[in-house]
């Protein structure tokens, strides 16, 4: 029997295949790929764009302003969809492709799926060297796209049109694997894109993908239950994996029934609401006194869906040296860290299995009430720092409180780098689950506005929070990447952006000076500029207005509160700017291990080095 085929170029076949991939969200069948962010150049405009133009009714293409930011928008979309839908980002060769490497690193560090497709040089090498080609004299197979190998979970270069038949399903499988989730990269040489090939029609049949839920080894669950039953002061550390598994409700029921307080990592924040009965605050360097106190005295820590990054563990000083860890994680690499009892499996399934294995055990009766008392003290401390004063310049904490109060229950707070992450991690009171996106796995400056655009796109369809993205960022990050304000205005996706202007890179200046170095090259006044006594002030509202946003410059907290109500009633992206204090911060009490000079002529640096040595003396030794 003769096989039925359809003759298409490789680019046409790739795009057609993308349109017939589906997934399920909340019981509804939806396209696996929500759309494409694209900037076209000579490496993808003649073939790939021709294919995308023909399917724009099924796979919409959105024009980006910067290759990095459009890939970051794809990450923001995936995060808002809790890894259940994927966006594509495509660029030309050379600098366009390399601009996406930072975004790939962001997705890789945060375990988030995005499909990156970049043009490439010619496989036949006849016109070499072509425009934007990098030549390696000892290895002609290397191109700029090899840079993605370090920051992707799946990498391929298509040198024959038949290769996509096996490669594309492997890319999707990697992106949807909860243990190996991350970005996938496909390089498309220009001459391979144009080649026609007789593809089997079966390749283009609809395919429904489901995210697997691997069950944990039964013996590992039994051992975890036995260890947990020995605990007098157990603690649950809830990470991003809880949210991506959809295990928030199961975790809350488990913790309440067993009397165990829950603290959240940066990625896990928002799995529970702020005032949930088992919630005891964010943990770690940008965490709460309540969570860190509980961590210091915990004898058994149940870490669920977290990679235990240094901001969670206080560079491994936050926990007692003799504390025992049980790590529930879909990824083996994360489950075995720091001598943990590894329980490799899906969070939702494993919580249920562990609950069953525990029988009638509950933690000592006084444990959870004490945790809630500590949390109430932390909440009161937040109130004291967030309360308005007569100071002429508001603090980050005060601005966070005003924005938090104005936010609707389903509005999503988005932040990433600088001083704001610490302030929102500590001070943002989550009103509804999964309405908090703080990208701090890679701390990528420039994520915020781009992610706001992607998040706004994700509000359509099942599984969406349904509110408006609220982006908070500093002036330094705004200057680094702001062009997706224009993207959001063009596409009609609304977000509210609050720019906190504190005169430069204030939080890194704080770290610099805390470790004994005088303020240098961070705050604008400490930079090599023409008039350090009066640095040029950027009118952020005017700048955003030039890109089509509705804008206001706010001069007080009352101004900001009024402007937020106005912004919520607008039909387009709105940018609000307010000057904030560069020196006032909500206190934190966890340690952080950073490099400090071992020798220095400065007494302040020598003192900082002694303090750093004391921190390292407290570190828990991992294997």
Automatic annotation (TrEMBL):
<dbReference type="InterPro" id="IPR045229">
    <property type="entry name" value="TPP_enz"/>
</dbReference>
<dbReference type="GO" id="GO:0016823">
    <property type="term" value="F:hydrolase activity, acting on acid carbon-carbon bonds, in ketonic substances"/>
</dbReference>
<dbReference type="GO" id="GO:0050660">
    <property type="term" value="F:flavin adenine dinucleotide binding"/>
</dbReference>
<protein>
    <submittedName>
        <fullName>3D-(3,5/4)-trihydroxycyclohexane-1,2-dione acylhydrolase (Decyclizing)</fullName>
    </submittedName>
</protein>
<dbReference type="GO" id="GO:0009097">
    <property type="term" value="P:isoleucine biosynthetic process"/>
</dbReference>
<dbReference type="InterPro" id="IPR029035">
    <property type="entry name" value="DHS-like_NAD/FAD-binding_dom"/>
</dbReference>
<dbReference type="InterPro" id="IPR012000">
    <property type="entry name" value="Thiamin_PyroP_enz_cen_dom"/>
</dbReference>
<feature type="domain" description="Thiamine pyrophosphate enzyme N-terminal TPP-binding">
    <location>
        <begin position="36"/>
        <end position="132"/>
    </location>
</feature>
<dbReference type="GO" id="GO:0005948">
    <property type="term" value="C:acetolactate synthase complex"/>
</dbReference>
<feature type="domain" description="Thiamine pyrophosphate enzyme central">
    <location>
        <begin position="223"/>
        <end position="353"/>
    </location>
</feature>
<dbReference type="GO" id="GO:0019310">
    <property type="term" value="P:inositol catabolic process"/>
</dbReference>
<dbReference type="Pfam" id="PF02775">
    <property type="entry name" value="TPP_enzyme_C"/>
</dbReference>
<dbReference type="GO" id="GO:0009099">
    <property type="term" value="P:L-valine biosynthetic process"/>
</dbReference>
<dbReference type="GO" id="GO:0000287">
    <property type="term" value="F:magnesium ion binding"/>
</dbReference>
<dbReference type="Pfam" id="PF02776">
    <property type="entry name" value="TPP_enzyme_N"/>
</dbReference>
<dbReference type="Pfam" id="PF00205">
    <property type="entry name" value="TPP_enzyme_M"/>
</dbReference>
<dbReference type="GO" id="GO:0003984">
    <property type="term" value="F:acetolactate synthase activity"/>
</dbReference>
<feature type="domain" description="Thiamine pyrophosphate enzyme TPP-binding">
    <location>
        <begin position="418"/>
        <end position="577"/>
    </location>
</feature>
<comment type="similarity">
    <text>Belongs to the TPP enzyme family.</text>
</comment>
<dbReference type="InterPro" id="IPR012001">
    <property type="entry name" value="Thiamin_PyroP_enz_TPP-bd_dom"/>
</dbReference>
<dbReference type="InterPro" id="IPR011766">
    <property type="entry name" value="TPP_enzyme_TPP-bd"/>
</dbReference>
<keyword id="KW-0786">Thiamine pyrophosphate</keyword>
<dbReference type="GO" id="GO:0030976">
    <property type="term" value="F:thiamine pyrophosphate binding"/>
</dbReference>
<dbReference type="InterPro" id="IPR030817">
    <property type="entry name" value="Myo_inos_IolD"/>
</dbReference>
<dbReference type="InterPro" id="IPR029061">
    <property type="entry name" value="THDP-binding"/>
</dbReference>
């Amino acid at each position: 029997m003769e096989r039925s085929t359809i003759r298409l170029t490789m680019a046409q076949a790739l795009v057609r295949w993308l349109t017939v991939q589906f997934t399920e969200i909340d019981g509804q069948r939806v396209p696996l790929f929500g759309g494409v962010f694209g900037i076209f150049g000579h490496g993808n405009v003649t073939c790939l764009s021709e294919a995308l133009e023909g399917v724009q009714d099924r796979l919409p293409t959105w024009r980006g302003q910067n290759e990095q930011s459009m890939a970051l928008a794809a990450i923001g979309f995936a995060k808002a969809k809790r890894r259940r839908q994927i966006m594509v980002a495509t660029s030309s060769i050379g600098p366009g492709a390399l601009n996406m490497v930072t975004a790939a690193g962001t997705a890789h560090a945060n375990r988030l799926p995005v499909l990156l497709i970049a043009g490439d040089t010619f496989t036949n090498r006849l016109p070499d060297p072509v425009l934007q080609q990098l030549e390696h004299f000892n290895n002609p197979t290397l191109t700029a796209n090899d840079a993605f190998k370090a920051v992707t979970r799946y990498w391929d270069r298509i040198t024959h049109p038949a290769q996509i038949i096996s490669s594309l399903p492997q890319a999707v499988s990697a992106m949807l694997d909860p243990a190996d989730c991350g970005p996938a990269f496909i390089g498309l040489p220009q001459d391979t894109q144009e080649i026609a090939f007789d593809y089997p029609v079966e390749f283009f049949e609809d395919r429904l993908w489901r995210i697997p839920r691997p069950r944990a080894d039964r013996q590992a669950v039994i051992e975890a239950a036995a260890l947990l039953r020995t605990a007098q002061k157990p603690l649950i550390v809830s990470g991003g994996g809880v949210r991506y598994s959809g295990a928030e409700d199961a975790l809350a029921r488990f913790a309440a029934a067993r009397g165990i307080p829950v603290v959240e990592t940066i990625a896990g924040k928002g799995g529970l609401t702020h005032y949930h009965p088992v919630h005891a605050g964010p943990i770690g360097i940008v965490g709460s006194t309540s969570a860190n106190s509980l961590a210091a005295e915990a004898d058994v820590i149940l870490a669920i869906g977290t990679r235990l990054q240094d901001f969670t563990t206080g560079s491994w000083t936050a926990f007692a040296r003799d504390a025992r860890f049980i790590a529930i994680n879909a990824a083996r690499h994360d489950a075995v860290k720091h001598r943990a009892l590894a329980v490799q499996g899906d969070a939702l399934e494993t919580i249920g299995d562990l609950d069953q294995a525990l029988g009638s055990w509950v933690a000592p009766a006084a444990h959870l009430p004490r945790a809630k008392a500590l949390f109430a003290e932390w909440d009161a401390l937040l109130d004291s720092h967030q309360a308005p004063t007569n100071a002429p310049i508001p603090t980050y904490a005060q601005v966070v409180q005003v924005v938090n109060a104005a936010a609707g229950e389903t509005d999503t707070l988005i932040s990433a780098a600088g001083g704001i992450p610490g302030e929102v991690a500590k001070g943002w009171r989550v009103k509804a689950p999964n309405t908090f996106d703080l990208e701090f796995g890679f701390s990528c400056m420039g994520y915020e506005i781009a992610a706001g655009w992607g998040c706004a796109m994700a509000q359509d369809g099942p599984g969406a929070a349904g509110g408006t993205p609220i982006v908070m960022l500093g002036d330094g990050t705004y200057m680094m990447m702001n062009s997706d304000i224009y993207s959001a205005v063009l596409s009609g996706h609304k977000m509210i952006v609050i720019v906190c202007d504190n005169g430069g890179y204030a939080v890194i200046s704080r770290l610099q000076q805390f470790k004994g170095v005088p303020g240098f090259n961070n705050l604008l006044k400490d930079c090599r500029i023409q008039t350090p006594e009066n640095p040029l002030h950027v009118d952020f509202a005017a700048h955003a207005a030039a890109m089509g946003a509705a804008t206001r410059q706010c001069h007080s907290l009352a101004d900001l509160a009024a402007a937020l109500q106005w912004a919520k009633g607008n039909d387009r992206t709105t940018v609000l700017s307010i000057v904030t204090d560069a020196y006032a911060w909500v206190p934190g009490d966890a340690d952080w291990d950073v490099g400090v000079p071992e020798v220095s002529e400065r007494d302040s640096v020598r003192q900082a080095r002694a303090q750093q040595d004391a921190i390292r003396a407290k570190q828990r030794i991992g294997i």
